[in-house]
Amino acid sequence: MQGQGQGQGGSKTSVLNCIDLSTPDLHQSVSLLKQACLDSGFFYVVNHGISQEFMDEVFAQSKRMFQQPLSEKMKLLRNEKHRGYTPILDELLDPENQLKGDYKEGYYIGVEVAEGDPEAEKPFYGPNVWPEPELLPGWRETMENYHREALEVARAVARIIALALDLKVDFFDQPEMLGEPIAILRLLRYEGGISDPSKGIFGAGAHSDYGLITLLATDGIPGLQICKDRDAKPQIWEDVPPLKGAFIVNLGDMLERWSNCVFKSTLHRVLVNGQERYSMAYFVEPSHDCLVECLPTCKSENNPPKFQPILCQTYLSQRYNDTHTDRSVYKKPQT
């Protein structure tokens, strides 16, 4: 069901469509997803096959990581492949409106590619940065299992998206797309401060995601907001309430390019209200060498392609470099 209710402090609450991955009624799933992609680019996914018990374990392991002393976490600092720990204020998503960076810390985990493998030479591929097993026993195994399971959910969602775009159901399963994807899990912890947009203070600044789709799991603490019309003056922000056991799924800029702006990559942000907040974002992109160009079903003589074709690796590298602190900053002597 789609609609709007009343949120906290008088703000609107966005009631998103809910896609049940276990239903045999594929036609209904395609219809609901298509409506959501045309309207807001956000929807819930339920009955996705990952048990609540396992989700709780992944969140518990995430908390164990972020509860480590900063000195330990800095030993696992994000590398040039965007793997590892990102400190508070490392990411600046909305430089026009943010006073400083995001008041969150994170941890990137990608597809594991061994050192020495030729594939590891590509951007975003390579070995992950893992904590010592003695420090966090079982942590790596939990995260690797979650990474694998979340990718299967993403592939299932992508098949419905393909049908909604009048493509073959397995369009995104091709090797150059989600057959060999750049799939990045990012664990997130938001500080227990209070966001104040009027002062440029945000848990996460306003942005749209870079890639194909994002699967977001939260700990139940609210904070996510979306803006359906980024050009509106003033912008209208709507709360997206957490839904127990569900992923919040949103479309990325790459899918908006692919669909020639038929489907929306929607602006979103996080405001924190004094409570510590944990979430897990799973970013799904095609392979490095995938050429992102207008889909055949999304262009016509009256609606020509709006974007030039671009390689996935080129596009992602540009976007990450634009929003993250240069790593050389962390190598300077502390005074």
From TrEMBL:
The gene is LOC115975642. It holds the Pfam family DIOX_N. The keyword Iron applies. GO terms for molecular function: dioxygenase activity; metal ion binding. The keyword Iron applies. Residues 181-286 form the Fe2OG dioxygenase domain. Keywords: Iron, Metal-binding, Oxidoreductase. Belongs to the iron/ascorbate-dependent oxidoreductase family. This is Fe2OG dioxygenase domain-containing protein.
